[in-house]
Amino acid sequence: MPTYKNVTSSRQNLNGKVVEPGQVVHTTSYHNENEVKLLKIDDAPYHNPILLSDVIMHKGEIKIPEIDNLGNRVVKYAIHFFVEKGRITIRYNNVKNDPPLYLYEQAKWNVRCYDRTINSIIVDANESFILNIIIEKI
Q1: Phi, psi (degrees; rounded to nearest 5) at 90
Q2: CATH number of the domain where residue 106 is located
């Protein structure tokens, strides 16, 4: 997600968006500076779809981030689980949300949320466990 600046004295068109002289814009892709006549001034802000990446070894609640690293509200996201050790119980949003999702050792599970239906993940187990979790913006 590079940052470009219009260093010309005329308006430029970048993917249908007008960029005024002197204006700085953040884009989602790189552009050929000879075609667009905008100067790339920085590679940042960097694109990173990962909202959370963690190894969980204790019971508790994991909050789904509401804001990404660029300050945008997170609405669509995917949750990826991998149980390295043990057996765990997953509930979404509330401890009373039954039936739970049971995951056993070496289990992999993915959940896609296209609107903000899951705000937290409640992890429970009767034994020691290692749960790898990745939450990514989609």
Answers
A1: -115, 130
A2: 2.60.120.10
Name the residue type at position 63: K
pTM for the whole thing? Answer: 0.74
- Label residue 107 exposed, middle or buried (CB < 10 Å: 0-12, 13-18, 19+): middle
Q: Are residues 32 and 81 in the same domain?
A: no
Residues 17-73 pLDDT 10s: 899 999 998 887 777 766 778 888 888 777 789 999 999 999 999 999 999 887 889
For 79-112, how does the pLDDT look when each residue is reduced to its tens digit (9 = 90+)? 999 999 999 999 999 999 999 999 999 999 999 9
Sheet-wide strand order for 101-103: 60-63, 120-124, 88-92, 101-103
Residue 134 in tokens? 């990745």
